[in-house]
Amino acid sequence: MDEQSPSSTVSTRERHSRAIALALGFFSRLPTRHLETIEDEDMGRAVVYMPVVGLIIGLILVVTGLVLSSFLGSWHGDLNTIHLSLIGLTLFAILTLASGGLHLDGLGDCADAWVGGLGDKERTLLIMKDPTCGPMAVMVVVLGMLVKAGGMVALTISQSWLAILLIPVLSRTAGMGLFLNTPYVRPKGLGQAFSDFAANPVTRSECRSSLMAALAISAVLLAGVWPALILVLLLWYWLRQQTLSRLEGFTGDVCGAVIEITEACLFLFIALLV
User: What metabolic or biological pathway is this protein involved in (predicted)?
Assistant: First the structure.
């Protein structure tokens, strides 16, 4: 029994390592290790690490912001609003590139589908699969990016690095929440594999632990802006009810849209309160 423990420990670490690599590969455009084969268990466990993907992105933003602030501060002697605004726009660009537009694509698809679907489930799903981008998608994506850019600039000017760190965590936790308690409705869709194996009792338990940890830590560290957190929690519930009403579940595009909407609203609400 003792001889198997080290092997079991290494195996467990490897499984978690594979899941993190898979989460980074599917939910961001950050460089990660290449997996020759992907096991069923890896797919479900990757969902557990969605908040970790957000944490890594948040760390990149904060470190970059602090380095740029330090460099420009030493160069100019003092940072003014223009300098901090440009740093904020740089961080917004990094945030957008880190996700590779994956979630923005989902937001655009959902915008077109919700308007063009006319309340019909099958028509809505069909429009989501259409690779072309309609005027509603363009409008919603541009508005979402403007809100995030403005919020990022405001938080950078106020030096709210803790909020910049945790907003990507909370937005991806919102996406993970869909996998935890909402049916997946597109057969053979990319998210089907994640949803199927996230339904495993062990994986569901890990998802709950990950979700509760992310929410609890964020609630403590961002206690000063608790109204924003409450508003976003209510927003997530409303978005989930909307997708249940229209689709009786969610798709990968819906998950991306929820992440984008949650992130934009967090930037907006917190920026208004700090």
Answer: Cofactor biosynthesis; adenosylcobalamin biosynthesis; adenosylcobalamin from cob(II)yrinate a,c-diamide: step 7/7
